[in-house]
Amino acid sequence: GDSVTQMEGPVTLSEEAFLTINCTYTATGYPSLFWYVQYPGEGLQLLLKATKADDKGSNKGFEATYRKETTSFHLEKGSVQVSDSAVYFCALSENTGGFKTIFGAGTRLFVKA
Amino acid sequence: DARVTQTPRHKVTEMGQEVTMRCQPILGHNTVFWYRQTMMQGLELLAYFRNRAPLDDSGMPKDRFSAEMPDATLATLKIQPSEPRDSAVYFCASTGGQGYNEQFFGPGTRLTVL
């Protein structure tokens, strides 16, 4: 079945450092890929998405590129801020109309001032 | 702006009591999900509905959990009887099925069973 694997956390960075959170997936079809973010005490919210191979999703300085050849969707940000401290979830959804989403385990990010 | 709402936000109860959690999906969304989040297990899909009909509830312990959608504006998750291991944050999410299947999450119900 479909699955998502993302790097274990926590990831601890200093402010303005470069961030990479790795994500790889297994899917039978051609899924849409997502990164969701969860701030303390809140539900998950969509950070960015890509719906087909080579698409780049971007939002709030974060970006991720849909790589079909390596089945990856790594999250990057050039300069993190303390306010980026949160849990990040990589996810996929098959474009078959079911709308069920498979989430990774989540990666907690701590950014120190 | 349109949001998924959940009530109650916090619930503390004693083992053996019935717990009912409610969710109001975004108006017009036809697919509703229930998730449970714990530190140990992460985010687990319990059940989901399309046009109020259950599509998959395989993630839900059948003996004590039940999920329903009495109407298009209300989804409920019930635990009877509750146990300490049910302590978790329960999230509801909805999607309209348009475009790229983004799910919109509610703020969650934090359940503590003593």
Please provide the ordered H/E string of secondary-structure elements of chain B.
EEEEEEEEEEE
Rounded mean pLDDT of chain A is: 93
**Greatest chain-chain contact:** A-B, 21 and 23 residues
Q: Given the C-alpha coordinates, what overall shape of chain B results? A: globular
Content of β-strand of chain A: over 45%
Gap from first CA to last CA of chain A: 41 Å
Structural shape of chain A: globular
Helix content of chain B: under 10%
H/E element order of chain A: EEEEEEEEEEEE
Largest sheet report of chain B = 7 strands, mixed
Short description:
Chain A is mainly beta and 113 residues long. In chain A, 0% of the residues lie in helices and 50% in strands.
Fold and architecture overview:
The complex is a heterodimer of chains A (113) and B (114). Chain A has strands spanning 3-6, 11-14, 19-21, 23-26, 32-38, 44-50, 56-59, 62-65, 75-77, 86-93, 101-103, 107-112. Chain A has 113 residues and is mainly β. In chain A, strands 2, 5, 6, 10, 11 and 12 form a six-stranded mixed β-sheet that branches. Chain A has a four-stranded antiparallel β-sheet with strand order 3-9-8-7, with no helix packed on it. Chain A is globular and about 45 Å long. In chain A, 37% of the residues are buried. The model of chain A has no long low-confidence stretch (mean pLDDT 93). With 114 residues, chain B is an all-beta fold. Helices cover 0% and strands 54% of the residues of chain B. Chain B is built from no helices and eleven strands. In chain B, strands 2, 4, 5, 6, 9, 10 and 11 form a seven-stranded mixed β-sheet that branches. A four-stranded antiparallel β-sheet of chain B has the order 1-3-8-7, with no helix packed on it. In chain B, a hairpin with a 3-residue loop joins strand 4 (31-38) and strand 5. The A-B interface holds A 32, 34, 41-46, 49, 51, 89, 93, 95, 97-101, 103, 105-106 and B 4, 31, 33, 42-43, 45, 48, 50, 55-56, 91, 93, 95, 97, 100-108.
